[in-house]
Structures
1.
Amino acid sequence: MDRSVPGRKAFALPQSDVPVQEWPDHVQMRDDLELPEVSQLEVIRYFSILSQRNFSIDTNFYPLGSCTMKYNPKINDELSNLPGLADIHPLQPEETVQGAIRLLKNLQDDLGEITGLPAVSLAPLAGAQGEYAGLLIARAYHEARGDAQRTVAIIPDSAHGTNPASATMAGLDVVTVRSDLNGNVDVANLRELSDSQTAVFMLTIPSTLGLFEPNILEITEIIHNAGGLVYADGANLNALLGIVRLGDLGVDICHSNLHKTFSTPHGGGGPGSGPVMVKDNLAKFLPNPVAEKRDGSYVLANPENSIGSINGFHGSFLIAVRAYAYIKALGLEGLQSVSENAIINANYIQANLRDKYNLPADRYCMHETVLSASRQKDRGVAGIDIAKRLLDFGIHAPTMYFPMIVEEALMIEPTESESKETLDHFIAVMRQIDDEANYTPELISEAPHDLPVTRLDEVTAARKPILRWAAIDSDDQ
Ligand SMILES: *Cc1c(COP(=O)(O)O)cnc(C)c1O
C-alpha cells in the first residue's frame, strides 16, 4: 500500500501493566506479516473511497439485459431485518415459527396465482437451481408413468445459457431447436424434433431476444401431443406480471428468480431464490419442503414423491420476505403497471435507437431490447467498445454478445424504475457514441477514460484471480 509510513499506527493502547508473554510457537502462522502502517483516518478514507467506486443501481443507470437491475424498495430490506424474521432459526420447532411458515405459504399462493402454476416450492436457491429442480420433476413424472426412455430436453438456440447446463446436470440429452428469421422458435423444426424420446421442451419466455413467443399455444400443443412436458424459464417475469399467466399458455413447470423481479438486490453474487412452480398433477414431485396449512396450523411438508431436498433447509427465507412484501405492497394493479412500464421503457429505447443501431428482430419488444452493433463494427468499433464508452457517461454496460445468435449483441433492459429523463440521457449518449464512431473511433476503442481503471485484462482476471491482499506484487500466487 503506497500510503504506508513506517511507524504510523491506527490505534493507541495504554502502557501494558502485565508482563509481556511470548506466543507459543504452534499458534504462529507466519514469521512476519507486512501490514501497511497507516493512521485510523487514512484507513477510513481508503475504504470509504473504495466503496464509492462500486457501481450500483443505487447510484447509476444499470441496463444490464436479462438481469433486471431495477430499484429494490429499501422498506423491503427493513422488513426482512425485523428481529422476528431475521433472528429465527431453521431448526426451531414449527409451533414457534407459525408466522414465518404462514408467510412462505402465502408467498407460494401468490406466485402460483401470478404464474398460473399453483403448486410451488420455494426451496431452490437460484434460478439455475430452480431449473435443475424443475427438470428433475419432469424426469420423475415420466419415470413414474413407466416412460423412462424420455431423456431428451429440446432447447431453442436463443435459450439462456443456464438452460442447457441445467438439463445436462439433470441427466437429460440436449437437442437444439432453431430460431426462425423473426427470432421465434422454428415450429416446423420443433415438430421434427419432438417424439417419444422428448422429456421436456424448455423455453425462455420472453426469449433472450426480449420477444414474446407468438406461437406458444401451438408449441405447447406439439410437445403435449408428443407426450412431453413444457418448461418455461420465467427467471425474469418483469414483462408478464398480471398480464400473462404461464400456466394458461400450456406450460407445466416454471421457475422464477425472486432476486430479479421481486425486490432483492443482486449483482454481487449474493443469495438468490428461484422458486419452482408446477401444475397440480406434478405437485407430489416438488422438492422438500412445501409450506402447507393442516388442521389450522402451518407446517413444512415433504411432498409424497418428492425429488428430495436440494439444499439444507427451506430456501432463502429473507428473500421470500422481501418478495412477499413487494407483492403485497403493489397488489395486482401495481404488478401490472410494473410490467407495462418495463415494456414501454424498453420499446422507447428501441424506437429511439433503431435508426442508428441494427435491430435484429424488427418488432415490438418486451422488457428488453437486443440491438446489434454490426453497423458500428463496420466502422471499426465493436460492441464491447461501445459498452466501455458508456462507462465514461456513468452508465453500466448492457449485456454483451448474448444471445449468441445476434452479431455484436447489446442487450438492454431499462426496467420500469427509470424516468423518461434517464432514458433520454441514455439514448442521447448511445447516439453520440454512434456519431463518434464516424469521427473519433479511437475515443470509443480506448474507453473508458474517466474511471479509476481503464481496460482490464478480463481473461486473466477470471482465469488467475488474485483473491487476497499481498504486500508484495508476487506473480507466483
Ligand atoms: C438470470 C437468469 C437465469 C439464471 O438465474 P441465476 O439465479 O443466475 O441462476 C436463468 N434464466 C434466465 C432467463 C435468466 O435471466
2.
Amino acid sequence: MIRPRPALAGDTLSASLASASRLALGGMPAAERLWTRLLAEAVRDPGELLRLLELPADLLAPAQSSSRLFPLLVPRGFIALMRKGDPADPLLRQVLPLAAEDDQVAGFSADPLTEQACGPAPGLLHKYRGRALLVATGACAVHCRYCFRRHFPYQELPRGRRWWTDALDYIASDAQMHELILSGGDPLTLPDAQLSELASALAGIPHLRRLRVHSRLPVVLPERIDDDFLAWFTGGRLTPVLVIHANHAREISPQVAAAIARVRAAGATVLNQSVLLAGVNDEVEVLGELSERLFQAGALPYYLHALDRVQGAAHFLVEDERARRLHQGLSARLPGYLVPRLVREEPGMAGKMPL
Ligand SMILES: *Cc1c(COP(=O)(O)O)cnc(C)c1O
Ligand code: SF4
C-alpha cells in the first residue's frame, strides 16, 4: 500500500528553497524554526506512545502491526492533551493503530472517492464549480487512523515547481475558478518559503479571489501559526480562509485558541471541519461542546463529515440513521451558526452532499 512520505523527508527543491530563504526571511534557518523541530520530534514509535500515556502493554503488538501499513505519527503537544491510562481517550483513539484496521469489511475500499483518476493536472482535483483543490504534499503532522487518504498514491505526484506549474496553468485557463484550496496530506508541513512562492503565483491569476488552506496543524501543532506563515497567508491579494480540523473539544487547548486568534487578527476567516467518528465524537453533548469551544476560540463549525468508507477505518463508522439523529439533536440545542453541515462526499456530485 502507498503511504505519505515522512513529514521531513523534503525534496531537493524545498531543501534549496529553505536554505535560500535564510537570508531573505531574516530569522532562524527554516530547519531550526520551532515548528519544524517539534514536527521532527513527533512520536513515531507505538511503544513510546504507550509509555508516555501509561497504557497497557497488550496494546503494543496490534499497534506495531497496524503501523507497518500506515505509520504512527503524533506530535508531543497533542499527546499532552490526552488522558493518561485511558485507552478509550477520544484523542488517542484518532491516532492509535488498532488490530481492527486489518479487518476486511464489505463496502470499505482503498479509494472510496475514486480520486486517484480524476485530476486535470497532477495533484489537482477539480470536482466542484469555482474551486479546485491542490494536493500540495502527501506529508502530514499527524496520521489520523480514519483518514480517507491513507491509500492515496502520493509518491506518483511530480515534485516541486513542475508539479505546480501544470496546476497553475490549469487554474489560469479557467476564468470561473475563484478559489484555490491547498490541501494534502497537510500543506502546512511544507516550508513557508515554498508556500509563499506558490501563494504569490496564485495571486497573479486575476480571476482567483480566495486562497483556502485545509490543515490539521493549527490543532495538532499550533506553533505552526508563526509570523512566516501569517506573512504569506494573510499578506497577499487573495482573501485567506483557514479550515482547521478538530474532532473533539479537548483538542482546542489554550495554545490552539491563541493560534486561531492570531490568524483572525491577521484578517483570515477560520472554519472547522470534523469527521463523525464512533468512540470519539458520536454523542450530542460531545459535538455540542466542540461547537461551543470552537466558537469561543474564533472558529465557526463548517462541516461534519460522514466517514469515508476507506479500508481499515470501519471501526469508526457511525450509521447514517444515527448520524442524522445526532445532527438533529445538535440543531435542537445550538444556534444555527454553531451547527456544522452533516455531509458526505460522493463521486460525481457537484458538491458535498447533505446526509
Ligand atoms: C471538499 C472539496 C472541495 C471544497 O468543497 P467546499 O464545499 O467548497 O468546502 C473542493 N474540491 C474538492 C475536490 C473537495 O473534495
Ligand atoms: S485527516 Fe488530514 S491530517 Fe489526518 S492523516 Fe488525513 S490528511 Fe493527514
